[in-house]
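Q: For a teaching handout, I want to show students what a protein-ligand complex looks like in token form. Below are the inputs, and the small molecule is NAP. Please produce the holo structure.
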Amino acid sequence: MASKVTELTTYKAYLAGEWKASSSGETIAIKSPYLRETIGLVQAVTRNEVDEAITAAHEAQKSWAKLSLSERGAYLEKWADELTKNNEEIATAIMQEVGKGYSDAKKEVVRTADLIRYTVQEALHMHGESLRGDGFPGGSQKKLGIVQRVPLGVVLAISPFNYPVNLSASKIAPALMAGNGVIFKPATQGSISGIKMIEALSRTGLPKGILSLTTGRGSVIGDYLVEHKGINMITFTGGSDTGHHLSKQSAMIPMVLELGGKDPAIVCDDADLDVTVKSIMNGAFSYSGQRCTAIKRVLVNEKVADELVARLKAEVEKLKVGSPADDSTIVPLISDKAADTVQGLIDDALAKNATLVTGNKREKNLIYPTLLDHVSQAMDVAWIEPFGPVLPVIRVSSDEEAIEIANKSQYGLQASIFTQDIDRALAVARQVEAGTVQVNGRTERGPDHFPFLGVKASGMGVQGIHNSLISMSRQKVTVLNLK
Ligand code: NAP
Ligand code: G3P
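A: Here is the structure, written as tokens, with NAP included.
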């Protein structure tokens, strides 16, 4: 059982190796989505403090990049150990700040320590390549190319609220291992969790200045960070609108964007419905559907639709609804505004004659799990990302129709296909516009060493540990012209 609310603390920002209050004198109150009370205050840093942090990062990066991979890795290994040691404190912060079930919050911390350790090992085994000059017509054996990877400089890491530790470390760890400096801007609702994570990192004795934690509202300090000439790469995870805005603000630097999704579960008429129901339930409703990779629509063959909907209804009505401190699956959403969005989608669908199978009940920012059947393409819930516990069922007559509707979405993060015919699964997977297609499983980012990417409005570039190390470094070619 998680401990009660921590006493109100005013947290400091971590700027050029020092924990300090911002000269702005401004703080941001962080309100718990389920306790509905302020659980802490974080700094609203100034543009000058951003400048100082970036300058310090460039200075520290010179010697940081000269450390061996093992020396850099030793800091990160200690970081993973510190996170593991302080799991309960950090998990409590995650739970209180973003309303994630306590067990899921503890799993997030464990997953993060594992990610950091894997990142160290992956970096240690990235060896570059050598090229023979005579590999190309007319080339000479006396020309030997050596290709290595070198850091980019200073990486700006911006993370979302729903995995305030894991999705931040999934940027910070590879950035540091690749030899970069880091400016970390957490989601405001996620800042306390981010601070606790960086407190753990600072306890490793990390060289001062190599990483700064700049808390503050993205709408206030975000553009200044993104447009800053001292930033050499941006790795962003968040909503598609925000990501699209960033992509227009930054100039001529590499950027990786992991954005929104509207992942379909395509259920064929030969699907194993035991597997299908289990995957859809977990994929659509865990953490109240506040996952980018949540299943956000079901495209089911009409031949099995009645049975599937009946079985989903039974499972939805068993979902635990309540406090994250009791490990409920359905918890209050991150904000009242988020709940308004979800309720609006439900209201629109019902007004356009969707069938309410179960749900459509709200208590402040707690939305009860809602299953809608006979959803048409005229309804907003067919297309808009709810980031909440509402699941629309769209009935289709063929795989081709399912693919057509799946691909009509502006999003292309992941998709699930349920069938017992592998050839059919691969045929559908080939045609679905998505970064990842899951066969007979829920849509999900993990395991974290897999490539993770979205296409269309779901993102640009690739995450996942190996790809993150690649995206936060560049090739350096040295050519030996031998006698
Ligand atoms: P968000 O509102 O887009 O915020 C994401 C981050 O961007 C936050 O740190 C936010 O800071 C910052 N930000 C806001 N405006 C900015 C600006 N002008 N310049 C720079 N940074 C700015 O997203 P969210 O509500 O935290 O997360 C939910 C969304 O993220 C959903 O759409 C979800 O699908 C997506 N997401 C995608 C993935 C993925 O891996 N593909 C993972 C998780 C979430 P503030 O918090 O201060 O506004
Ligand atoms: O929304 C966060 C995204 O990265 C999903 O992660 O592991 O829940 O699929 P996961």
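A: Two things your students might notice: Residues 1 and 43 are 30 Å apart (CA to CA). The domain at 9-259+459-478 is CATH 3.40.605.10 (Aldehyde Dehydrogenase; Chain A, domain 1).
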